[in-house]
Design a protein that fits this description.
It contains 9 helices and 5 strands; from the N terminus they run H-H-H-H-E-H-E-H-E-H-E-H-E-H. By secondary structure, the protein is of the alpha/beta class. The protein has 2 domains: 80 residues, Methyltransferase, Methionine Synthase (B12-binding Domains), Chain A, domain 1, CATH 1.10.1240; 122 residues, 3-Layer(aba) Sandwich (Rossmann fold). Strands 2-1-3-4-5 form a 5-stranded parallel β-sheet, with helices on both faces. Helix 7 links the parallel strand 3 and strand 4. The longest helix is centred in the middle third of the chain and has 23 residues. The protein binds CO-5-methoxybenzimidazolylcobamide. CO-5-methoxybenzimidazolylcobamide binds next to helix 3, helix 4, helix 5, strand 3 and strand 4.
Length: 210
């Protein structure tokens, strides 16, 4: 079993999209859950690429190619999760905050939420505070989810929460993304911090009493 996780991680490090999709399909066919192959395999790979990027051993074009391989793997595993959908437990709008284009983690969170019975609207990436609020109003959302992967864009989460409070609105807010922590969530007045997709479902269930 460990070998296939290793293969999954290597496909991302090698920026091999076709290979990543093939490993994802094979893992699912072998009965490995979408969550396991993602967390124990592909995510390890993209984290390794991130470390290599930070230490200057790989450059932006290679990082982008690894991200593309990651997107291929995510498409396969997310499609497998779709079959598990149940009745809608609540309405969520989610996006990557303004100035930030990282959306791999958000795509995983969305798939988990949908598989767990939520009606989820993906606002995309580089989403302004105004758009978060407009869409939440339009869709009568229960929860606004905000993903931020850069220390420089985390501040945008604070901006959205401030806009909600200033507008006298009552949407529940959940923040996530690698630089975010529970402490950050407390500091900016978010209702919850989600460490990963599974935690996101748990926190939103708790916020909505599901
Ligand atoms: Co960028 N990048 N990147 N990058 N990138 C990081 C984040 C970085 C840590 C890499 C590094 O230096 N080690 C670094 C940030 C440093 C910092 O801010 N301190 C960085 C940088 C610097 C940059 C650029 C500035 C590089 C440049 O241009 N010089 C640039 C910024 C562009 C921009 O946004 N304006 C940039 C660009 C890119 C790519 C486009 C090449 C690509 C993104 C492609 C894409 O997403 N479509 C990319 C990638 C892939 C990464 C790394 C390697 C991987 C991110 C990822 O997908 N992780 C990343 C290094 C790293 O994280 N180790 C890095 C896997 C994913 C499953 O995890 O996103 O954390 P994550 O999501 C998790 C949880 O966090 C949580 O659940 C998810 C699933 O379990 N979660 C939520 C996330 N959002 C949530 C929302 C919720 C709930 C839970 O709401 C309900």
């Amino acid at each position: 079993m460990a070998d296939i996780y290793q293969e999954a991680a290597e496909s991302i490090v090698n920026a091999d999209r076709a290979g990543a999709e093939e490993v994802a399909k094979r893992a699912l066919a072998e009965g490995i859950s979408p969550a396991d192959i993602m967390q124990k395999g592909f995510v390890k790979g993209i984290q390794e690429v991130g470390d290599l990027f930070e230490s200057g051993e790989v450059f932006l074009p290679e990082l982008m190619m690894s991200a593309d391989a990651m997107a291929g793997a995510t498409e396969v595993t997310n499609a497998a999760l779709e079959g598990e959908a149940a009745e809608a437990k609540g309405t969520i709008v989610i996006g990557t905050v303004q100035g930030d284009v990282h959306d791999i983690g958000k795509a995983i969170v969305i798939a988990y939420l949908k598989a767990n019975g939520y009606d989820v609207t993906d606002l995309g990436r580089d989403v302004s505070a105004e758009t978060f609020i407009e869409k939440a109003k339009e869709l009568n959302a229960d929860v606004i989810g905000m993903s931020a992967l850069l220390t420089t864009t985390m501040e945008e989460q604070k901006k959205v929460i401030k806009a909600i409070k200033d507008g006298g609105l009552s949407y529940k807010t959940v923040v996530g993304g690698a630089p975010c922590t529970q402490r950050w969530a407390d500091q900016i007045g978010a209702d919850a911090y989600a460490e990963d997709a599974n935690d996101g479902v748990k926190k939103i269930d708790a916020l909505l009493g599901k």
